[in-house]
Each structure stands twice: as C-alpha cells, then as structure tokens.
Design a protein that fits this description.
The complex is a heterotrimer of chains A (about 350), B (about 325) and C (about 270).
Chain A (H helix, E strand, L loop, with lengths): L12 H4 L6 H20 L2 H27 L7 H18 L5 H20 L7 H21 L12 E2 L3 E3 L2 E4 L5 H24 L1 H11 L1 H6 L4 H28 L1 E2 L6 H14 L4 H24 L6 H22 L3 H15 L5
Antiparallel strand pairs in A: 1-4, 2-3
Helix pairs in contact in A: 2-7, 3-7, 3-10, 3-11, 3-12, 4-5, 4-6, 4-10, 5-10, 7-8, 7-10, 8-10, 11-12, 12-13, 12-14
Chain B lengths: L1 H16 L1 H32 L6 H17 L4 H24 L7 H23 L17 E6 L2 E6 H23 L1 H11 L1 H6 L4 H26 L6 H5 L2 H8 L4 H22 L11 H12 L14
Antiparallel strand pairs in B: 1-2
Helix pairs in contact in B: 2-7, 2-9, 2-11, 2-12, 3-4, 3-5, 3-9, 4-9, 6-7, 6-9, 11-12, 11-13
Chain C lengths: L13 E12 L2 E12 L3 E5 L6 H8 L7 E6 L2 E3 L4 H6 L2 E4 L11 H7 L9 H6 L3 H19 L15 H14 L4 E5 L7 H18 L2 E5 L3 H7 L2 E6 L2 E6 L1 H6 L1 H8 L4
Parallel strand pairs in C: 3-8, 3-9, 6-7, 7-8
Antiparallel strand pairs in C: 1-2, 1-4, 4-5, 9-10
Helix pairs in contact in C: 3-6
C-alpha cells in the first residue's frame, strides 16, 4: 500500500540515474543507517562483538569478491589470502609508523592487497573459468605459506600470530584489549557504509558496465573497444582492495590477534558462498549472504537447545556444512541471482499489492 | 654468489653424491603422484562425459573410504562392506544426477562448477554427521592388502619400498587399463564419447544423457573408492584430505581436462616435482613448499601452455 | 575526442580496402586472396553460400582474426592486421550473427556500454559518482536516449536483454553498435531468423542509419530480396574466393554467382 512510486516523476536523466530512484527506498536506507548507528550505543557487547562486527566485516569481503566474481565473472578462490595480505600489511605499517592513525593504515593496507591481486590477476588475460580458479588457488596457498614461513610478517612473535597493539583515535582506544565493542563497531560500520557507497557508484557507472560487459560476452566487449586485460586487472585491484581492508579490520577490529589459519582456503570458500547465496552481481546480496552464512551456525547452536533439543558442538558444525552445501545447490538451481533476487521479487509484489501483476 | 651456488649447484651435487636418496625421493614422489593422478582421473571421467568440473571428486574419495571403514566397524565383514560401499557410491551417483545435475542442465559451466562446491560441503557435513569427524584407520589387512617393506640394496645405499605402494601401483594400472578398454571397446563407452563431443548430437541419436551421467559419476565413484583405499592405507581416513585433493586441479592443468593419459602423467609429474623441490630446494626457503609448488607450476603452465600437455586446442568462434 | 562521423573522407572515397587477404585455420582455407573495398557512405553487401567465408571476412576487418597474408587499409592507414581495440577506436562497430549482447545487463546499459570509448572519467570520479562523472554520465545518457528514440525501443530500456524476444535483441544490438557513433558499421546477418514484418522494420532502420547518420555499412545477408533493395554494391564470396563484385544488377546476372547459388559442380 505505502510502497508506491505513483506521482514520483523523474524530470531529468540525473534523477533517473540515482541509485535509489524510488523515494520509499531512499527513506528506508536512511532509516536503516540511522538504526545501525543507534544500535552501536544501545546494543550489548555480545550482539556487537559476536554478531554485528563480524557480519559487517564479512559483508565487505563479500562485496570485494562480488566485484570480481559477480560483476566481472572471474571466479576467485583466493579471497582468504587477499584478506590476509591486508591484515599483515596493516600490522607491518603500524609497527613501523605507530604514530600514524590506525584507521589510515587499515584503509592503506587495501592498496597492498590490490597490488598482490593485480599480480595474481595477470593470468586472467589468457584463462577463464576454472582455469583461473586454479590460478587463484596458487595465490591462496603461496600467500598462506608466506604468512607462516616469513617470520618478519608477524614481527617474529613466538606465537607466530599478529598481536594487535593498542592504538587510539582522539584518545579513545580503537584497537587492542582496551577498545570497547562500541567504538570498534562504529568504526567498522562507518568504513563499511562508505565503501559500500563507493562500490555502488563504481558498478553503476562506466567501469561497472565495462566489468559486466567482460563478464557477459568478452569477445563483444573487446570489439567495442574495451581492453580486456586492464579491465580485468582493475577488477582484481578493486576487489582485492576491499578484501584487504576487510582482512585488516577482521584482525584489528574484531579478533585482536590472528594466525595464518584465519586466512585459509576455508575462509575463501566461506566468502564465496556468501556471494553465491546472496546473489552474484548484487551489493545488497552481499549483505544478505554474509548475514545468512555467518548467522547460520549461531542460530543452529542456540535455537535447538531453547527448543529442548540438545546438540553437540560438533554436530552443529556438521549440520552447518550440510545446510550450506544444500543451500548453494538450491540457490544455483532455483534462483542463481540469490537472495537479492528474492528480495527484488518481494519488492515488486509489494509495489503492485494487492493485485498479482 | 653463495646463494647462486646453493640454488643452482649444491642440490645437484647432493643428488650425485647420494643417488640412493634421489631414487627414494623419486619413488615417493611417484607414489604421491599416483594419488593425485587417481583423483584427477575421476575429474577427467566426469568432465569428458558431462562437461562438469567436479570439485567434489576429492571428497568423494574420503566419503567412499569413510563408508567402507564405517560399515566394517558397524559389524559387516570386509568384503561385504566393500560391496555395500559400491552400492552406496551408485546411490550417490544416482542422487547427484537427479538432484543436482538434471535441474542444472544447459546452465553455464561455471554454475555447475560452483554447484559442486555445494556438493563438497554437503558431503563433508553428511559424512562427518554419520561416521563422526575423528580420523579412522583403513581396513588394510581385512582386504588382504600387503604390508611391510622391501629394502633393495642399490645405488650405494638402500632403497626402501612399501609393499602396499607396489600393490597400489599394480591395482591403479589395472584400473586404468580397464577404463581404457571400457571407453574404446564397449557400446556404453562409445556412447560416452559421443556425449562428450556434443550433448545435443548425442540426444538426437537417442543416447540417454541421464543414464550416461549416472554411469560416469558411478565410474568416478569407483575410482574414488579405489583411491580412498590406497590413500587410507597410507594415512588416516579423514576429511583432512580435501586440501590434498585440491592438488588434482594443477594436475589437470598440466594434463588437460579431457585426457586420461594426461591425468596420469600430470599426476606423476606433480608428485615427483614437489617431492624433489621440497627435498633439495625446500630447506633453502624454510620448507613446506609442497603446499603451493603444484599450483605455482600450474600457473606457469597456464601462462605458456593453456591447453595442457595433452588437451585439445579450441578455436574460439563468433 | 575525435569528431564523430563527419570525418576527413569525402563521400565516394574508399573508407576501407582489403587487399589479397588470406586466412586459414589449420588446413582449412576460410578466405583465399580476397580484395575489395568499401566506399564512404555506401551500403556494401557481402553475400555467398554457407561457409563462403563471409563472417570470417568481418572478423578480419575488425581484428578478431589475424589473416596470414594481405593488407587492410582503413582511413588511409595500411596494416597487415587490425587489433580489435584499434578497430573499435578507429570507428568500426559490429553486430553479430548470433546476437552477442551483454545478457545480464539492461538494454540501456548495453547501449551505454557502447559509449565506453567516449567516456573519460577515471576511477576516482566514478567512485564519487558526482560532479564531472555525473555530468559525463548524463551527457552520454542523452546520446543513448537519442538512439533509443531512433530505434523505437523506449519501452524496454530498463529490461534485462536476456529476457527480450529475439527481434528486439537484434534491435538493441544495433542500438549498441550505433552508440559507438561508428564510421563503418558491420552487420552480420541483421535479419536472420526474423519474420517479414521485422525484416521490413530492420531494413528501414538500416537505410535510416545510412542516410540519417551518414554511416557506411557493410552487411552480410542471405535474403537476396533485401540485399538487392538495400545495397549499393555487392561482393560475392564462394569457398573463400571472391567470384563477383559490382552493383546488385550486375551481380544478379553474373554466371559464376548463379552457379554458386544453384550448386553447379566445381
């Protein structure tokens, strides 16, 4: 009833080009953003620490992978490693320049990931599909090996792990043991919102169209003057940048310390599944996918006991694997555009409600 | 200069100085490579007939081995368990065709590829839920597989071979020979090759895609079972294999996706290559190189020979 | 930005010439020693039986295939091969035999993708989608809308092209090619698989493009009626060789052409 676009006329191409041309959508987004900030001050530490912070960080990584796989059509199994590059780069930067604000380094670490992404993206000129997936596996395993075997990367700590130091912003602890969940949540939220906004701008403009053109029909794109290699490498760079920032935030603003295993192939798969279930080529889908994949084990762990069904932690893990696997197959068969498409359909239904068409 | 000596000369000096160690390393590389080759073989069977790149092949190996051990633990005699496992693998092939492949027919390859990721995760969860997540011991003796070692004095030292590995090599060769005969001589084998060339053409001459797919997935399941027994006899049976199974991917890049000899040769090259590299050059950079060696070799191959050693070149048409 | 279409070559001059081009795949000769030219402002048809090498010829012209021998002269520049990007940047646009649209994108995005080469704002402004980037986007949207009006596809501009019926897909593909504001437009069987009405519409569009924008057009077509009506000159290929070249009337009466089409034994 309330979701109608009647009476909203677009009088210029600029207004038609807006990302959310419908007024109700714009209001909805503003309400959600405000609610997200309010949550930072009202929710308890458990909700922020165990749910909201990781959810937002994984969303950012999923957006990164979506740029590469969903928009440009290049399948990557190296997301975990690219996230790791960001985390280790951030660690080294803040070790050498402790005076510079940590948030600057978290963002800057994305550039290191982007560089590594470009290097491992070079083979994408000649290969695609699963061939490229194997090439990204090379990145995954080689970088993981570096994280273990190059002690310089983790400052020769005996734990062989990143130990996040205490850093402050305007005197308030941001990272390390003293930083409150509230502070970290607000920083993560701000970075994720800002980067979602820029990602949305990129994919709706010329560069986004070039990526999608390469994805849908690379030969036609080439014959229209789109140079394949720079376009693909740009996708690798931007995608890895997002993953790198997500990796740095994962360690500095969530875990507070991490070994190389955090950036293993399983992390890569987990992010890929978020993208597939959320919807290939949809930024909104990245949010849905991250929520579903990340929340599923939590729900499975806490809901059955409440219903009086006792489950072992191991069983929960096994069932999670099965459910995730089944969901992947289900979505690929029933709705390859994922949860995002289901959302669109729901909105369309709402628009014309109570009529079926 | 010192580093050049260590990289370019010293390893070869070591090889010449201790040829028995070299032969031992080569043998171990071959045995390891055989495992990769067998997993890759399962990939090739499915890819040839259905164009599906089955990421779950490695997990099917574990699943088959787990089922075998699990059924035996539940009280079945070894060979009854083996027979029942074969039935289970058939049921698996049939369900995959019904539930996953048939609804996805005519979808882009990459979608089918990603569907096998889902299959992988489902099988991991399913297998662990039923048989438990803890590592298990393969029932080697019950299946009358030999154990112990043969020590051959040669090359100025002793080369030590496990009897099991020799048996594995013989069984694997026999299996490959059977598959080759099956593909080239039988009616079903010829139908399989027809399907591989063109789905539409195969349909139009009345070959049932569904049947063919069940058959190749079943064949791949049998290969997985044999692989699972071999590999389980050498280490524990657990889903830790999934990372090792990924090395079948670089093997396929080397050998090409459609060639059975390619899978074998590629597997052996990768196996020997990573053992030699780790043994002679690994210590220079801290060891553990076998986690990525195969993938980096594949990457180099992709840049210069994108179609593999035995693969077919495809001319792109518009 | 290069001045669009009203270019340095006067009407009637040679815009593109292929000389002694040969192309083979493995042992199969797709094109053997073919020469012809395309003049500024004309509609040039390339016809011939199936497998005559027509599509291969277009692929050579816009650089997708590299000929083993021969030269291509475009806008006075001679080279032994084109590169796809150079061809596009030089003003050669193309449609395909089996529609090669970007299926996951809307019709409008497809057409806007055709303007990629003319858009300049880099990643920084794209990220902000503000100021110069937005101004550029609106500017090019205007041009895209002109083409949309011209081809009467306003109603489907926001529809994902994969869901459009075939005839409309062909039209969107033409729109995408026109968005490049090409000097030379290569059309590979623009009317294949269309019904009579759609064919008439498409013929009208091709003529309009030629007259309205002054675009030189080279087209491959099987429907002889269409070819005879539309084209100024016709080149006929058979088994990769050129067997005739001239006005539609000349070609129609050429004995070699009649033989090729009626299947006289070689």
């Amino acid at each position: 009833m309330f979701y109608r676009e009647v009476g909203q006329y677009k009088t210029s191409y600029a207004s038609d080009l807006a990302i959310f041309p419908i007024l109700q959508d714009r209001i909805g987004i503003i309400v959600i953003v405000i609610a997200a900030y309010v949550l930072g001050w009202t929710a308890n530490d458990f909700v922020l620490n165990a749910m909201m912070i990781p959810f937002l960080i994984f969303t950012l990584a999923a957006i990164g992978l979506n740029i590469l796989t969903g928009y440009t059509g290049l399948l990557s199994l190296g997301t975990g490693a690219f996230m790791g590059v960001g985390a280790y780069a951030c660690y080294k930067l803040t070790t050498y320049f402790p005076g510079v604000n940590i948030i600057i380094w978290i963002i800057a670490s994305g550039f290191f990931s982007a560089l590594v992404g470009i290097i491992f993206g070079l083979p994408s000129l000649r290969i695609k599909g699963f061939y490229l997936a194997v090439a990204t596996l090379a990145a995954q395993f080689f970088l993981e090996w570096c994280f273990i075997r190059i002690p310089w990367l983790y400052n020769y700590n005996t734990s062989a792990a990143i130990e996040v130091p205490s850093r402050t912003l305007f005197g308030i602890p941001v990272t390390g043991a003293n930083a409150t969940a509230e502070t970290r949540y607000l920083i993560v939220l701000t970075i994720v919102i800002a980067m979602t906004w820029t990602a949305s701008n990129i994919v709706h403009g010329r560069i986004g169209r070039m990526w999608m053109a390469v994805r849908d029909m690379d030969i036609a794109a080439e014959l229209m003057g789109i140079r394949l290699l720079p376009t693909k490498l740009l996708a690798f760079a931007v995608s890895s940048f997002y993953c790198g920032v997500a990796g740095a935030m994962l360690v500095f603003l969530w875990y507070g310390g991490a070994e190389s295993t955090v950036f293993s192939i399983n992390q890569s798969f987990s992010i890929l599944f978020m993208v597939i279930i959320g919807g290939l080529g949809s930024l909104l889908g990245s949010y849905f996918g991250a929520a579903l994949i990340f929340m599923l084990p939590i729900v499975l762990r806490f809901v059955p006991p409440h219903l009086g069904i006792p489950v072992h932690a191991a069983t929960v893990e096994h069932i999670t694997f099965m459910v995730v696997g089944a969901l992947i197959v289900f979505f690929l068969i029933v709705e390859p555009h994922g949860l995002a498409r289901l959302w669109q359909i729901a909105k369309q239904k709402l628009r014309v409600w109570p009529y079926p068409y | 200069m010192d580093i050049l000596y260590k990289v370019l000369i010293d390893p070869f000096a070591q090889m010449v100085a201790a040829p028995d160690l070299l032969v031992q390393t080569l043998w171990e590389g071959l045995v390891g490579g055989m495992l990769y080759a067998l997993i890759a073989l399962g990939f090739v069977l499915i890819f040839k007939a259905s164009g599906v790149f089955n990421f779950a092949q490695g997990i099917m190996v574990v699943f088959a081995a787990l089922t075998l051990v699990g059924l035996h633990t539940a009280g079945l005699p070894a060979f009854a368990a083996l027979a029942l496992t074969i039935v289970v693998m058939f049921a698996l092939a049939w369900s995959i065709e019904r539930i996953v492949l048939r609804p996805l027919i005519n979808q882009p390859d990459i979608i089918l590829f990603m569907a096998t990721f889902g299959l992988t995760y489902f099988l991991i969860g399913f297998g662990e839920l039923i048989f438990g997540g803890d590592p298990k011991i393969m029932i080697t003796e019950e299946l009358y597989l030999p154990k112990g070692r043969i020590n051959i004095p040669a090359f100025g030292g002793i080369v030590s071979l496990q009897k099991l590995d020799i048996a594995a090599a013989i069984i694997a060769s026999a299996m490959v020979a059977c598959l080759s005969v099956f593909f080239s001589k039988t009616r079903i084998g010829r139908a399989l090759r027809a399907v591989a060339d063109s789905h539409k053409a195969a349909l139009s001459v009345g070959i049932s895609l569904e049947q063919i797919w069940v058959i190749v997935w079943f064949a791949a399941g049998l290969v997985a079972l044999v692989t699972g027994i071999m590999w389980g006899a050498r280490s524990d049976v657990s889903f830790a294999l999934d990372v090792i199974a990924l090395k079948a991917l670089p093997v396929l890049i080397l050998g090409g996706f459609t060639s059975i000899p390619g899978a074998i040769v590629g597997g052996l090259i990768v196996g020997v290559g990573e053992k030699i590299a780790e043994f002679y050059w690994g210590p220079l950079i801290g060891g553990g190189t076998d986690s990525w060696f195969a993938f980096v070799i594949a990457l180099v191959f992709l840049l210069f020979w994108p179609h593999g050693l035995f693969g077919e070149k495809i001319i792109e048409r518009i | 930005m290069r001045a669009p279409s009203q270019s340095d070559i006067a009407a009637g001059e040679v815009l593109l010439a292929v000389e002694n081009v040969s192309l083979s795949f493995g042992g199969v000769h797709a094109i053997r020693d073919v020469s012809f030219d395309i003049r500024k402002g004309e509609i040039r048809a390339i016809i011939g039986p199936n497998g005559a090498g027509k599509t291969s010829m277009l692929n050579v012209i816009n650089g997708f295939y590299t000929p083993q021998r021969g030269k291509i002269t475009f806008r006075g520049q001679t080279r032994s091969k084109m590169r796809p990007h150079d061809a596009a940047a030089g003003g050669i646009a193309r449609t395909f035999q089996n529609v090669a649209l970007f299926r996951g994108m809307s019709a409008l995005d497809n057409i806007m993708a055709g303007r990629t080469l003319r858009m300049k704002r880099g990643l920084f402004w794209q990220m902000l989608r503000f100021g110069p980037a937005m101004k550029e986007e609106v500017e090019h949207r205007l041009r895209a809308e002109e083409i949309i009006d011209f081809l009467h596809i306003e109603h489907i501009r926001k529809v994902q092209v994969g869901r459009l019926p075939y005839g409309l897909q062909k039209r969107v593909e033409l729109a995408r090619a026109l968005a490049m504001e090409p000097d030379l437009l290569l059309l590979d069987e623009p009317m294949a698989g269309m019904n009579l009405e759609e064919k008439e519409d498409m013929s009208r569009f091709i003529l309009d493009v030629n007259q309205h924008f002054g675009t030189t057009i080279a087209l491959i077509e099987h429907d002889m009626g269409v070819v005879m009506d539309l084209s100024d000159r016709v080149v006929v290929l058979d088994y990769g060789r050129k067997i005739a070249d001239g006005t539609p009337e000349d070609v129609k009466q050429d004995q070699a052409v009649i033989d090729a089409y009626l299947g006289v034994a070689h």
